[in-house]
Amino acid sequence: MKQTSKSSSKASSGAHLNTGNGPTIMPVDIGHSTYFGLMDPDSAFWSLVAKVKLSEALAGGQELMKTFRLGRSRFLAEMDTLRGGLIPSAVYFNPTDLCNLNCSYCYIPETMRKGGVSMTPQQLVDALGILKEHFARTLPKRTKPQIVFHGAEPMVAREAVFSGIEAFANDFRFGVQTNGTLLDDEAVEFLTSRGIGIGLSLDAHVDRIATRTRTRWDGSSIFDLVTTVMRKLRDYPSFNVIATVTRENMRCLSALVDFFHEHGVGVCMLNPVRCTRQGARDIRPADHEIARYYLKALDRTYELFLRTGRKLVVANFANVLVSIMAPSARRLMCDISPCGGGRCFFAVSASEDLFPCSEFVGVQDFCGGNLFTGSIEGALSSQAFKKVTSRRVEDIDPCKRCAIRHFCGSPCPAEAHEMNGGMNQPGAFCGLYEEQVRYALRSIADGRHDAYLWDGWDKGTETLIDITSL
Amino acid sequence: MKNKMKAVIAFRKICKAKGTGLSHYILMAGKEK
Lengths: 470, 33
What we know:
The complex is a heterodimer. Chain A is of the alpha/beta class. Among the domains of chain A are: 50 residues; 240 residues, TIM Barrel (Alpha-Beta Barrel). In chain A, a hairpin with a 6-residue loop joins strand 1 and strand 2. Chain A is globular. About 24% of the residues of chain B have low confidence.
């Protein structure tokens, strides 16, 4: 992983940009009337330079390039740590294979969702006990690991999930990602009174569109049920909603943003559909189409903020923005390579099998072992996990030539493997990332970026550079 | 707050946390009580 300049010193002193051992500075048109981007892809250094000042900015004697050269080794070291020096602190925990819904794009195989297994309360408590011991050995004392109950539908195993939360209330930070249909008043009270994170899924602001992708097994709607739960969770601070973006709903993203904002949602994700299975690929939007509607939805969140003073953070875009401004302060680990799967987090299936990420549950080639019969350390160092943890943008075409490769990471390895035929293939939405990063840089150029970010996003950071003049 | 008058905009922050450094799914898991 080390990128720090260590080789070929005899061939070149590295004194010049873009020749010999000198760093590469790539120009990037961000689509802004005043500013142009200059980037060093390896160190994720970026700058926005007034177009009329470009040649001056690139001259060796100017402050910008001097600061860049002075800071480059530290930037590279930071990226090395981010990409190779972290250890797992979170677990996607699937307490059941079963789901009461049949969403068309689900990445869990249908046979599992219909006829799979569920953990008993005792099994789940035992599993969390093993995880607690593991993290006690591996994490710094003050770091509390995270458990996100994930799906299939975790609330199908409600008794087990709640038993685990009660037994380990002081040991983990818990979250539940749920379709919401099984969250009755008692469940809402149980979760909210304990400060448990709750993520719902909803793909549209109206029943007609939401039901195109998310229904019960008999095809009936769940829209009214989910929106009722949304109203109950209004303004709950640990509440978010995930919308999966497909061809079926991309045109309504701005209306969906309005809907979320009206319902007091503070954080949402607009996740492009994960194309690991055919059902998802059938409704995959073209990059240029999803990008168009996605950016309009971001514009809409900004308008809403200006009008009401209340933010609706689109978390996956916010993460891209943070990855530019403070690479190691990012929260989601899909947009960096290697991704977070198997190195920042891992997944436990209902059969207690260990996978690098939930996206691989059901793909046995990526099973690294079993929580009860093997060891977590063994899984983390298994060949199955290494296939994911060794996937780097430098080995992928066109990413190896891309200026924004460390703001994107070419997600996701599961898509690369299942859809594109290999781990060293790009993911599904290269074009969307290109547009997101350009949008993010334009928002920085215009001083709008804070409106897209969660409050306190830079808590615990220090400023390395802040340049405003040549 | 427009930046039009600036010749250059370049800043970078670094996360000071050691060890794991990151809270992966902070937007999902519950906040600290």
